[in-house]
Design brief:
It is a single chain. β14 (233-238) and β15 form a beta hairpin. The chain has four helices and 15 strands. By secondary structure, the protein is α+β, with helices and mostly antiparallel strands. The model has no long low-confidence stretch (mean pLDDT 97). The chain has helices at 7-30, 37-50, 117-134, 144-156, and strands at 54-55, 67-71, 74-76, 90-99, 102-111, 160-161, 167-169, 176-180, 197-200, 203-205, 211-213, 220-222, 228-230, 233-238, 241-244. Bound molecules: 2-amino-4-trifluoromethylsulfanyl-butyric acid and cobalt (II) ion (CO). Residues 105, 168, 199, 201, 232 line the site of cobalt (II) ion (CO).
Length: 248
């Protein structure tokens, strides 16, 4: 079942989306070499509260933080901790906010200080893949067109998509139907309809893209230790493509 949101529900999701965008932007500006990643989590909680929202990840299936901070070969679901951010690190921040019962979810990746140009290219290609994918979130298209366009861009650049995690529908719940893999699907249904809301989130690795889950039970890392990047937006399906609701 894929739900179609009413105008009022879309309005609330846009409010949640604006909070996600503002907070992610603030966190990105605030991130500095030498800082412990848990400082980002504390700041996120304060900001979300001040805007009248709730951290959507906190407590979701027992997830213990408001944000995910994934460094370098961590793909997703990195735990904020005492670990310091260092020059050359690739930092991914992932955040969900609930406002009046409705959610939005987004992620960004950026680098700290002087960074290997190949890592910079990985980040750029992943962000491009997100925008190429969300342009396909158009009324009348198949879900599979999102993933196949993402995968094509990533493969052409010589990188791999991570297949164990997928994008998802979103609304009252963080994860709703449909699943949105970042690769082409043999099953090409369902058709996209106006008013669906989707979180599209390419996760891209420099190497093969196989992952394992670390001992905290959450954090996904690449098996080959290669760097990974992750970008995500929540979008509204329209006749012209995905309308991003998690940007300012
Ligand atoms: N953007 C990720 C997702 O949609 C983050 C989820 S973290 C969790 O799966 F803790 F909430 F699971
Ligand atoms: Co998501």
């Amino acid at each position: 079942m894929v739900s179609i949101k009413s105008d009022e529900e879309i309005r609330l999701m846009k409010e949640a989306g604006r909070m996600v965008a503002v907070v992610l932007n603030e966190l990105k500006q605030f991130t500095q070499e030498g800082m412990a990643t848990q400082e980002l989590d504390e700041k996120a909680r304060r900001l979300i509260k001040s805007f009248g929202g709730k951290p959507a990840f906190l407590g979701y299936r027992g997830y213990p933080y408001a944000i995910c901070v994934s460094l370098n070969s961590e793909v997703v679901h990195g735990f904020p901790s005492e670990r310091s951010i260092m020059e050359g690190d690739i930092v991914s921040l992932d955040l969900g906010v609930e406002y009046d019962g409705f959610l939005a979810d987004a992620a960004v990746t950026f680098s700290i200080g002087k960074v290997d140009p190949e890592n910079q290219r990985l980040i750029k290609i992943t962000e491009e893949a997100l925008y190429i994918g969300l342009a396909q979130a158009k009324e009348g298209n198949y879900i599979g067109q999102i993933g196949s366009s993402i995968e094509e861009h990533v493969i052409k650049a010589g990188f791999s998509v991570v297949r164990e995690f997928v994008g998802h529908g979103i609304g009252k719940n963080l994860h709703e139907g449909p699943s949105i893999p970042n690769y082409s699907l043999p099953i090409t249904t369902p058709l996209l309809k106006k008013g669906m809301t989707l979180a599209i989130e390419p996760m891209v690795a420099y190497g093969k893209g196989d992952i394992y889950i670390t001992s905290n039970g959450w954090t996904a890392k690449t098996k080959d230790g290669s760097m990974a990047a992750h970008f995500e937006h929540t979008v509204l399906v329209t006749p012209r493509g995905g309308e991003v609701i998690t940007s300012i």
